[in-house]
Design goal:
The protein is α/β, with parallel strands linked by helices. The chain has a single domain (9-252), classed as TIM Barrel (Alpha-Beta Barrel), CATH 3.20.20. The chain has helices at residues 20-34, 50-56, 83-89, 99-104, 109-121, 134-138, 142-153, 159-164, 183-200, 203-208, 222-226, 243-252, and strands at residues 9-13, 40-44, 62-66, 93-96, 125-130, 166-169, 211-214, 233-236. It has an eight-stranded parallel β-barrel with strand order 1-2-3-4-5-6-7-8, surrounded by six helices. Helix 1 runs parallel beside helix 12 (243-252) and helix 7 packs across helix 9 (183-200). The protein is globular. The protein binds phosphoenolpyruvate (PEP). Phosphoenolpyruvate (PEP) is lined by residues 13, 15, 170, 175-176, 214-217, 235-239.
Length: 255
Amino acid sequence: MNKSLRKAVIAGNWKMNKTRPEAKELIEAIKPLAVGADCEVVVCVPFTNLETAVEATKGTNIHVGAQNCHFEKSGAFTGEISADMLTELGVEYVVLGHSERRQYFGETDETVNKRLKAALEAGLKPIVCIGELLWERECGITEEVLGKQCKLDFFGISAEDMKKTVIAYEPVWAIGTGKTATADQAEEACAYIRSVIAKMFDKATADAVTVQYGGSMNAKNAAELLSKPDVDGGLIGGASLKAPDFGVIIAAAKE
Ligand code: PEP
């Protein structure tokens, strides 16, 4: 990545894993591995672990994120959590539009855009996930898919807000499958996303925005993926649940 322009963000997406004691244990194990990190270290934990994570990371360089938030401030939305409820807890980041939410919970680009606006208004740092399906890649429309998602998901936000937003390029076929995009495929897609942001906003915004790669990133492949100039960190699922592996990925972002 171009470290003179951007800081890498290494974020763990714990998905629906870990009880509160387990969450505390994992954070305690990550803490020493994050000391002196040359990247922003984030753990995106289930809602029930947020308070535990905020408490356990006080005074450290580990930041806490949630995995979703609703777009309304309050009201009759059973089961939902607002962006303000997250900031009240001391949460800094929120993952939006993860492919699992798009696939299983009816998330659309329109609702991602609404959630993004609500998160930014509440002062959260959003991590917005975009990425193509295997079928779309095979049909040769990866760039069209990524371009459309950028245009819809980031519609109507200011350049300043775009700079605060992290984009996670997550090819859906690589999430939780053990199939990683090659470093060249990741670079190509992240660079393309940056070119779309330059067209939508301007070059300064595109140069400043963090574009992560996510999809089966692990202790073995992280260094090569993170060596690419347009890959500004990673969103990591499975490997973020094992402290030693997550530690290797954090260290790889230093080099
Ligand atoms: C993710 O959950 O965003 C992810 C990339 O998962 P995994 O690393 O397990 O593929």
